[in-house]
Design a protein that fits this description.
Length: 139
Amino acid sequence: AGCAAALGRLRAAGHFDAAAAQCVLTLLKYAQNLLDAPEDPRPRSIKYSNAAFQNKVAAFQGGEDFLLALGYRREQLPGLLSHEAARDPLGSSALVLRPEAEDPHLIRQALALLHAEGDAVGLDPAARPRPRPKPAAAA
């Protein structure tokens, strides 16, 4: 319900379809990467200072909410000195998906919602991320 509500806010905000399509495409990439790389910590942490995140997700009402509904949480990043955080407040925080909050079933449902939203905003199916094939088991 949270993911659908977030997409509803994106739609209700009246964003132009081309801009909304970029938001949907970026969210599709984030969600697909979670399923494709279950052991990789990189897609499970999105820095607020990331330009793609700021321009393609955070700039849209409902964009960040979608990730929060997936289980991401706002966290301060460790290891920054206080003067560094003061100079770049976005650089000191991230959206983080902890293992205990990750739900593959919810992620698959969210992907289905995103694909439907992609259809609604005219996102070319060929531009959308596809699941990576699983490597064959060694004999």
